[in-house]
Amino acid sequence: MNYTVEATWDSAANVWVAASSDVPGLVLENESSDVLIKEVLDTIPELLELAGVQVKDEKNTVTISFSKEFMFKNSKISETEANG
Predict the structure, then answer these.
(1) Annotated domain spans of the chain
(2) Distance between CA 43 and CA 41 in Å, rounded?
(3) pLDDT tens, position by position, 13-57
(4) Is the pTM higher than 0.90?
(5) CB neighbour list of residue 62: distance below 8 Å, 6 or more residues apart
(6) What is the CATH T-level fold of the domain 2-72, as seen in this structure?
(7) Which residues pair with 27 in a beta bridge?
């Protein structure tokens, strides 16, 4: 089965936020996208088991798509800031 996780950058809190409509209860945040990916991969099997999905016998693929959404009030933003 495939599970899609959306990760967006929250510029107000300076964290990545990951959530999924495919995985009930999945909402995580972290300042590092690398750490967030690890947390997502560690958490998904636990949440699926709690939801009654047998994950130990299935080959599950987790698809993680990152989208960056920046909302700044200041119009003078460097490309580095805008690209994270």
Answers:
(1) 2-72
(2) 6
(3) 989 899 999 889 999 999 998 899 899 989 988 998 899 887 766
(4) no
(5) 2, 3, 5, 40, 41, 44
(6) TTHA1013/TTHA0281-like (3.30.2390)
(7) 19
Show the tokens assigned to 43.
């958490």
Q: Which two tokens stand for residue 48?
A: 């699926």
Q: Looking at this protein, which amino acid is placed at residue 66? A: F
State the Cα–Cα distance between residues 17 and 26, nearest whole angstrom.
Answer: 10
Residues in the chain: 84
Strand order in the sheet with 27-30: 27-30, 15-19, 2-10, 61-66
Structure tokens at 35: 């750490």
CA distance 26 to 48: 10
For the CA atoms of 80, 72, 27, 84, the dihedral, rounded to the nearest 10 degrees, stands at 0
